[in-house]
Amino acid sequence: MKSRGVRRIVMSACFAALSLAVFVIEAQLPPLFIPGAKLGLANIFSLFALLLYGPVEAVAIVLVRTLLGSLITGTVGSLVYSLTAGVIAIAVASLLAYTALKRVSVIAVSVACAVLHNIVQNLVFVLISSSPQMLVYMPYLALIGAASGALVGAAVYLLVKHLPYKTLIGV
Fold first, then answer.
1. Which one, of 118, 119, 106, 116, lies nearest residue 152 by Cα?
2. Are the C-beta atoms of 121 and 136 separated by less than 8 Å?
3. Global pTM?
4. Alpha-carbon separation of residue 35 from 92, 94, 150 (angstroms)
5. All structural domains of the chain with their residue ranges
6. pLDDT tens for the 171 residues of the chain, in order
7. Which helix (H) or strand (E) segment is 57 a member of?
């Protein structure tokens, strides 16, 4: 029984490290169409951990990635936007995963959360900077979120489908 708990912690740490690495690499790439827009591929690991282990591990991965990622990439100024949006998005992903996943796909959950993440991040920016003109980006952020969420969701779907479950959870 103890080995399952240890395996869960180790796997969560591995997912956090992979998520952080992808986040740092993606931060070096040019934005998608509008300033700050990214694919969000690091979310693959938090969504996968959510499905595999639960919301506590997923939130921990989001927190580690966001905090360390902002320190490593030098984007500490945007930490409040990313952290708020990341925590809200993973909370909604948890709610959807445990209530609606039997009726909708992991791709739909990912799309919903990616769109929500982008909208929350923009709203927090607008509130803090007192620049309502930034709301004009909402439709574009929603479209980018839908596309990136579909990509992340498809990757997680493939991971769930093809990785040996017993190896990951330690059964």
1. 106
2. no
3. 0.89
4. 25, 29, 21
5. 2-169
6. 466 688 889 999 999 999 999 999 999 988 877 777 788 999 999 999 999 999 999 999 999 999 999 999 888 888 898 999 999 999 999 999 888 878 889 999 999 999 999 999 999 999 999 999 989 989 999 999 999 999 999 999 999 888 876 666 665
7. helix 55-73
Structure tokens at 27: 């931060």
2-169, CATH topology level: Arp2/3 complex 21 kDa subunit ARPC3 (1.10.1760)
Taking Cα atoms as reference points, which of 120, 107, 101 lies closest to residue 153? 107
Question: Tokens for 60?
Answer: 């921990």
Residues 171 and 39: their CA atoms lie apart, in Å, by 33
Structure confidence at residue 104 (pLDDT): 87
Dihedral-angle region of residue 130 (phi above 0 means left; psi in -120 to 50 means alpha; beta otherwise): left
Chain centroid offset of residue 95 CA: 14
Distance CA(109)–CA(4), nearest Å, equals: 27
Which residue shows structure tokens 């959950």? Answer: 109
Rounded to whole angstroms, how far apart are CA atoms 154 and 111?
A: 10
In the numeric block, which tokens belong to residue 94? Answer: 């948890």
Contacts of 19 (CB under 8 A, 6+ apart): 42, 43, 44, 45, 46, 61, 64, 65
